[in-house]
Sequence to fold (275 residues):
Amino acid sequence: MKNMIKLLKTSPVSARFGLIVITLSLVVALLAPILAPYGQSEIVSDVWLSPSYDYPLGTDQLGRDMLTRLIYGARNSIFIAFTTTMIAFGLGAILGLIAATTGGWLDILLSRIVDIFMAFPTLILALMILSVLGTSIPVLIVVVALLDSTRVFRLARALAMDIAIMEFVDAARLRGEKTLYIVWREILPNALPALIAEFGLRFCFIFLFISSLSFLGLGIQPPTADWGSMVRENSGAMNFGILCPLYPAATIALLTVSINLVVDWFLHRSAQIRA
Fold:
């Protein structure tokens, strides 16, 4: 705990700001049912009302409280993006490390499969698959995770190939260690800083990607609150000078920038430790 406090004290202002925003977002997401003044889909008044005491951010296109929708949107958007990132990162990193360590036909097969998926624009491929399989949350998570795991695979494989030629890996092979042991005990610890940074960047990408799908109508479906779909649903309000679609857009941008600030600080610190 003392080391953590010391680390935070020596961190730059940008990283502290990012950590504060991320922490507040997680708290809001976890305590959404307690913090939200109304129900997620509850119609409380007329459409597109201006901010007031009862409705601090006004109402949306159906008369639902915008603050409530933002709070529940944090829970849905963040947790779905985090779950998707965990699946994509776990699958891509494990297969990439194993492929680089094993080599041979397995490496060639996995690399060619990844090349096929990466040959198509991710958004177009996701739209095609979701239009066929449907847009339920489990399908959305699996499809986005599989598509994004290809990027993680390429990074993990490149890192592992650089580490696999080191002398300590050769020593482990000469001792007769199995592939999984070499991956887990020799390669993964040395690739971990870059993989952790990539996890943050992957989360940002998936978070924005799911928001984009929701904006296009093939992501998280109504009445479930989601920041991307909230921008689409209330976009017509801008014609009347009403700013309610800017609230979810601003939260998307703020969380994404905050995560990038923390990732940049982590990468800078890791480089200093190595030096």
